[in-house]
Amino acid sequence: MNKLRLPASCLLLCALISACNTDGKKEGATSSSTTGTINQLKLPQPYATESVKNYSEVIGWRGKTPTAPSAFRVNKFADNLQNPRWIYVGPNGDVFVAEATSEKKGKERKEAIKSGQAKSQNIGRSPNRIILLRDENQDGEPEQQHVFLRGLKQPFGMLVLNDYFYVANTDGLWRYPYNQGQNQITGRGEKILELPAGGYNNHWTRNLIANADGSKIYISVGSGSNNGENGMENEVRRANILEINPDGSGGRVFASGLRNPVGMGWAPGSNVLWTAVNERDELGDELVPDYLTSVKEGGFYGWPYAYFGPNEDPRMKGQRPDLVKQTLVPEVPLGAHTASLGLAFYNKSAFPAKYRGGAFIGQHGSWNRSELSGYKVVFVPFQAGKPIGPPEDFLTGFISEEDKKKVHGRPVGVAVLQDGSLLVADDASGTLWRVAAK
C-alpha cells in the first residue's frame, strides 16, 4: 500500500476573472450575482449579509419531473435507489452508480435533526455499494440491474483501467480484477492507497479520473473543515487533487488549495483537467462562489487563506500572505453556496451544436443562504477547450413552485451516456434522470 509525499510549494498567479449574469428572462439564463464568466466579477465584502442556516426539505417528486429546455425530453432512467450519489459510465456503456451518504451518529445526528438538516439529506447508515444498470437496447430504460459491489466504505469515484475496476472509498483507493460486461465483482480487491477519511459536511467524497493514456490517476480529496478551523495540521493531503500511478505508487499533490473539488473532467480535444469546486461557508449569502476551473500542475487555489485570487479570508488574516498572493483565479464562478459538485463534458453529437464540448454541472443546493441556490444542473458553453459564456440553467424544477423552502430532489452526479443523452443522479429522491434531445 502506498502513501503520498507532500508538495514542495504551490506556484503562480492567474489571469481571467468572471462576470455576473442577471438576465433571468432568457431561457437557460441564471440569475445569481456571483455566477458568470470571463469579464469582471464584483465580490461583496465578507459578512455583507448574515450567515444563516436554511436547510431545504425534500418532499419527493409526486408524479412530477425536472424541467429541461424545450429541445429536450426528460424521463426516469431508474428509481428506488438508495442515495445514488455518483455515476460512472464504463467503456461498454454499463452504468455504475455509487450509493453512499453522510453518516451522522449520536450528538451529530441529534443536531442534524434539530437544525433541519435531516429533512434535507439522508443522514442514516450509508448503503456502501455500487449498482450496475445495463440498457442493452438503449431505449432509455435499463433492462438489467445488479448489485455490482458491496461492503464498501462510502464509495464515490469509479474507474475502469487496465483490467481493473477502481473504487475510491472515503478512506482509500481499492482496485478489483474486472472483465468488461461482468455483472458482479467476484475477485478479491486490494487497497493500493490510503486516503484521509471523512471531512467537513459532505467532504467524504473521493473522485477518480485517469489521463488519456492511462498512465496516471487523479483523486480529488475535500477539506476536513470549512475554513481550517480545526488547525492545518489536520488538513494534510486534503483540499487537493492527488496524482498517482495506476498501482498506487508515485503519489504527489497535483494541485492544492481546492476546498472541495469533486467533479473532474478533461475538456474535449485537450489534455487540460477541469474541476468543479464547492467553496466555503459562513461569509454571507454571496460568498464564496463555487467555481469551475482548469487545474494547473502545482497551482494553488486559495483555500483556506484566500478566494478568487488574492481576496484574503478574514478568518485567516495575516497567516499566509505568501499563499494569498499566489492564489489562482478560477475561470467560471457558479454562484455562492450552490454546492456545484457534478461535472461532465459533452463529447457526443446527439445534442444541438451549442452543447458540444461544453460542461454540465450538477448543483446539489445550498443550506447557508437566506434564499435557496443551486438545486439544478447548469451548462457552461466551451469552444476550443475554453469557456465562452456564462452558465445557463439546463435542468431545473427541483425547487417546489408552491413552497420555495421545499425541494423535490437534489441533483449531484452527471454523466454522458453512449447514446448521447445526459444522466443525472438525484440522491435525495433515489432517482436517475435521463435527458435526451427530441
UniProtKB/TrEMBL annotation:
Pfam families: TrAA12. Residues 1-19 form the signal peptide. Keywords: Signal. The keyword Signal applies. Residues 68-284, 328-435 form the Pyrroloquinoline quinone-dependent pyranose dehydrogenase beta-propeller domain. The keyword Iron does not apply. Residues 106-128 are annotated as: Disordered. InterPro entries: 6-blade_b-propeller_TolB-like, Beta-prop_PDH, Quinoprot_gluc/sorb_DH_b-prop. This is L-sorbosone dehydrogenase. It comes from Rufibacter tibetensis.
